[in-house]
Task: inverse folding
């Protein structure tokens, strides 16, 4: 026995659907569910009145030609050739109701800048920090350094700021690294010696 593939099932459903809706689209329904209600319940004089009104709107049933019927419709309507007269004659129908106001930015008047001809002397160069490292104690986790700065001996630790002039960045086995606030650069000082470049 041969099995049907998914493609063939889909194609069969599609063909069936198209046939079903195509027949329904071209079918005309002559059944009027309201025709019986009006014809049975309507009084005789009212049915005559409905027929007379229908004759007024149908040119062939009233005995008029189509051209006469169109002329009667045109004559009963307002004059189509008269110009349009709006209720407010000064109003422009194409003008926007709300207008966006554009405000120009204020203009600045620039005053001429007076340049002084007297050159100010350059500030004196900043003196480099002088630190003497007497010793370093502790291990990797916590080290302390004994230093001499501006004739004052003190003990400093890592990340300590000394008198707002420098910060201790790192304390190693044989040297300390500081950052000078005035010079904005790092300095390295060895134990018992002068500054080392780095």
Result:
């Amino acid at each position: 026995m041969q099995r049907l593939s998914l493609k063939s099932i889909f194609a069969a459903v599609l063909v069936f659907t198209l046939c079903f809706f195509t027949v329904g689209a071209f079918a005309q329904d002559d059944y009027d569910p309201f025709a019986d209600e009006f014809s049975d319940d309507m009084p005789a004089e009212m049915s005559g009145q409905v027929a007379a009104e229908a004759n007024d709107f149908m040119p062939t049933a009233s005995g008029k030609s189509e051209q006469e019927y169109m002329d009667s419709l045109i004559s009963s309507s307002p004059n189509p050739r008269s110009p349009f007269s709006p209720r407010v004659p000064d109003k422009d129908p194409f003008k926007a109701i709300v207008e966006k106001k554009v405000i120009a930015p204020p203009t600045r008047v620039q005053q001429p800048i007076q340049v002084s001809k007297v050159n100010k002397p350059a500030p004196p160069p900043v003196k480099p920090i002088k630190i003497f490292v007497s010793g370093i104690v502790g291990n990797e986790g916590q080290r302390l350094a004994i230093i001499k700065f501006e004739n004052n001996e003190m003990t400093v630790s890592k990340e300590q700021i000394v008198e707002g002039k420098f910060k201790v960045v790192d304390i190693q086995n044989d040297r300390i690294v500081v950052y000078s606030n005035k010079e904005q650069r790092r300095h390295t000082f060895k134990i018992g010696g002068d500054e080392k470049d780095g």
Remarks:
- The radius of gyration is 53 Å.
- The first strand starts at residue 131 and ends at 138.
- Residues 131-196 form a domain with the SH3 type barrels. fold (CATH 2.30.30.830).
- The longest helix spans residues 6-26.
